[in-house]
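User: Structure tokens for both sequences below?

Assistant:
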Amino acid sequence: MNKRTRQLQRTMEKRNRYSKEQIWNLNIYLTDHIYCALKQFKNQRMYSYPAQFNSEKEWIEILDKMIWSLEEIKNDYPNDPLYNYKYCIPIDGKDIYSQEERDKMEKESDIYYKKIDEGLHLFAKFLQDLWI
């Protein structure tokens, strides 16, 4: 290996600042950092808010939706109505939930994930407004 190749290799290693685990679960890694930053941002004194809002209170409500969505993802969707259903073991080969109960949980789960999506869409929409 010549000197130029070694220099190039060292340069590339410096650029790879993230561990394999962080890259493997990049969604969790990024969510955790964005979640913490948004919480801190929300708790700072705000000197302004986006022009489309009539008050700081409306902006705080949007931030709360973003934070809630990121927290749910960060904690692996703990409030998903189907969470317990997905991980329960049938007793004697029989499902412990009736078809009606499963249908109800699926509808509630759809609402839950739409709420998460709403927070993520709001984050994307207002990303450039996240400054104090």
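Moving on to the next sequence.
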Amino acid sequence: MDTPLTRRTLLGQGAKLAALLALPSPLHPLAGIGSFGERDARALLDTDQERLAAWSASLRTERLADSKVPLGRAAARVGELAIGTPYVAFTLEEYLKAGGSATREEPLALSLTRFDCVTLVESCLAIARATRAGAPTWERFAREVERMRYRGGRRQGYTSRLHYFSEWITDGEARGLIRDLGPELGGVADARPLRFMTEHRASYPALVDEEALSAISAMERRLDGVPRRVIPTDHIPEVADRLESGDVLAFATELPGLDVSHAAFAYRDGGGTLRVLHAPLSGGVVEVTRSTLPEYVAAIRRATGILVARPLWG
């Protein structure tokens, strides 16, 4: 997620979903987790529905699909199982490129065989929640994604999607899906107006439509009064011990008009070191960073800190 355009991508359009799910998608080699046998087994899981069944079975076997277990822990486990999965950008807008309308109901695009940074976060949380509700079906998984991705959980046109990740956080908190940890971690208010989408209209295929442009502009103005609490980069080491595996991270940027440039999970490795589990554009596959979270943020050009939200079972 280097801009709102690239950060929330999934495969295909609704009309092609059934065909998409039937296609095998070879995985990149897995590294850094589990035994050789486990890596081999996961390499064979090359379709979305096979992955949904296998990953949810892992959560049940490991007793992670329980409301007594933090949701973030279950979501991070799904993220571990997704390590090595390819990053694919721009796919959420494919229905527009194929001639779809920005003002009609947006197709609910879904994939577990490729991710961008936000769809990885959404998919891991959705699988954990769907598994807690029982043996997850693709439809149940879809409902869980839908209620995170769209304002108020209601999927309508393109503009009903939560394009700015800071709104993803505030909207989710209002509905009991997450808790914004910014205030309690000493987050500093970022009151800059968000205008990136309308000021870069040519980068967004949907904004060719004047009605969609007007709706996005109105949304940006509404967000002017919504506080964003950013933990500054140099303050992250002081609060790192209060973060848990599966906390949702958004990397704040100083780019004019933009709130964040990337999203991920906080991740504690076997030794307790705090790292980042994410789908990076630069790395090409889902991974856990070699660097610690403070080191990772400090290395991001124009980063100012992080927004942090703790997932709730909702």
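User: Anything stand out in the second?

Assistant: The first strand starts at residue 178 and ends at 180.
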